[in-house]
Amino acid sequence: MSETRSTTQPNVNPELKGFQIKINEFGQMEQTRTLDNLNAFLNAAVNDKKLKKEKSN
Predict the structure, then answer these.
(1) pTM
(2) Residue 36 — left, alpha, or beta (φ > 0 → left; ψ -120 to 50 → alpha)?
(3) What pLDDT, on the 0 to 100 scale, is given for residue 15?
(4) CA 42 to each of CA 6, 19, 31, 48: distance values in angstroms, whole numbers, following the listed order
(5) What pLDDT sits at residue 1?
């Protein structure tokens, strides 16, 4: 049984277009953007549920 892979690209935020992560043979991440760039996007686009709870207490 051979496994087939889909060649269609997932729907992504336009700011992340072209972002890819690969794991090399040594188990290290290789990505097309820096982690600081990715963290900045996540901080702006995603609400942190834990911080929301702390602010309401």
Answers:
(1) 0.57
(2) alpha
(3) 86
(4) 26, 13, 16, 10
(5) 56
8 A C-beta contact, residue 19 and residue 12: yes
* Structure-token match 């982690």, residue found: 35
pLDDT given for residue 26 in this prediction: 96
Can you tell me the distance from the alpha carbon of 33 to that of 49, in angstroms, rounded to the nearest whole number?
Answer: 26
Local structure of 31: helix, strand or coil: strand
Q: Mean of the pLDDT values across residues 40-47?
A: 88
Measure the CA–CA gap between 22 and 19, rounded to whole angstroms.
10
Question: Beta strands 29-31 and 21-23: pairing type?
Answer: antiparallel
The token pair that represents 14 in the structure block:
């336009």
One DSSP character per residue, 3-19 reads PP---SPPP--GGGTT-
